[in-house]
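lol forgot to send this yesterday, sorry. C-alpha cells for the thing we talked abt
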C-alpha cells in the first residue's frame, strides 16, 4: 500500500536525530514536525526567521503572526527565537543546519533537484531553496514517486530548471526510501505492500536493487 503524505513525513521523521537543527521546506516536509519522537531534542528552523518551530496548531488556536516559509500558521516551542532574514540565511549559508527536508518536482539519479519552476507558470523566484541546496550537506527529498499522469519523478536527468546539482542524499516517496549513490538510485526500503517491481516500473532513472528489500517501519 503506497503511503500518503503523512506516511512520507512519518518515515522521514525517523531520520531526525537528537540535537539536530532541521530546516523544513514547503509542502510534505512541514508535516515532519508532527511525527518526531518526544524523547529527542530537535530544533526546527524556517527560513523566514524562526528557530524552535513546533507542530501545526489545533483548529481555533492559530496565531496569524506565527507562520512558516509557506505562510502556514505554526506553533513555537518554549525557548523559540525569531530573527531577520539575514540571520536566518546566515545559519543556512554558514552550514549550521544538520538536515534539510525539501519537496521536489523532479530528482535525477545523480542527485540533481528541480523544485522551483515549471516553465510557463508564474513564479516569484527561486527563493530560499537555492541557498538550502547549495549549502546543505544532508538533503532528504519528500515527494510522490510519480506525477498525476503516472510519469516518474525520479529521472535519468531532470527536465525542469534545476535548483541544485548533485546535492540530494536521500529520497522518501509514497513507494520507497532511496539513497542517491554514484551508481544511481539505491533502493533501501519499500512501502508496506509495495513490490520491488512496482518501484522499478515507477522509476525512470537507474535503480540499484541489492538483496531482499525490507518494508518501511513507520512506528
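and heres what i got for the seq, position by position
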Amino acid at each position: 500500500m503506497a503511503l500518503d503524505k503523512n506516511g512520507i513525513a512519518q518515515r522521514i521523521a525517523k531520520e531526525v536525530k537528537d540535537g539536530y537543527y532541521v530546516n523544513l521546506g514547503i509542502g510534505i516536509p512541514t508535516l515532519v514536525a508532527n511525527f518526531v519522537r518526544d524523547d529527542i531534542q530537535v530544533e526546527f528552523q524556517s527560513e523566514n526567521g524562526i528557530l524552535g518551530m513546533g507542530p501545526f496548531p489545533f483548529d481555533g488556536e492559530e496565531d496569524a503572526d506565527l507562520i512558516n516559509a509557506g505562510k502556514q500558521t505554526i506553533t513555537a516551542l518554549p525557548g523559540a527565537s525569531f530573527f531577520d532574514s539575514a540571520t536566518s540565511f546566515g545559519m543556512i549559508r554558514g552550514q549550521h543546519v544538520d538536515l534539510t527536508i525539501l519537496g521536489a518536482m523532479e530528482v535525477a539519479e545523480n542527485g540533481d533537484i528541480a523544485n522551483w519552476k515549471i516553465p510557463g507558470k508564474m513564479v516569484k523566484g527561486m527563493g530560499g531553496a537555492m541557498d538550502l541546496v547549495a549549502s546543505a550537506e544532508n538533503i532528504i527529498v519528500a515527494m510522490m514517486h510519480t506525477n498525476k499522469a503516472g510519469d516518474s519523478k525520479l529521472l535519468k536527468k531532470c527536465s525542469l530548471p534545476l535548483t541544485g546539482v548533485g546535492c540530494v542524499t536521500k529520497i522518501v516517496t509514497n513507494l520507497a526510501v532511496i539513497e542517491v549513490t554514484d551508481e544511481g538510485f539505491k533502493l533501501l526500503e519499500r512501502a508496506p505492500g509495495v513490490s520491488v517491481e512496482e518501484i522499478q516500473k515507477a522509476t525512470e532513472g537507474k535503480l540499484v536493487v541489492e538483496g531482499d528489500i525490507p518494508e518501511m517501519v513507520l512506528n
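The helical segments are 5-13, 85-93, 129-135, 196-201. anyway ping me if u want another try
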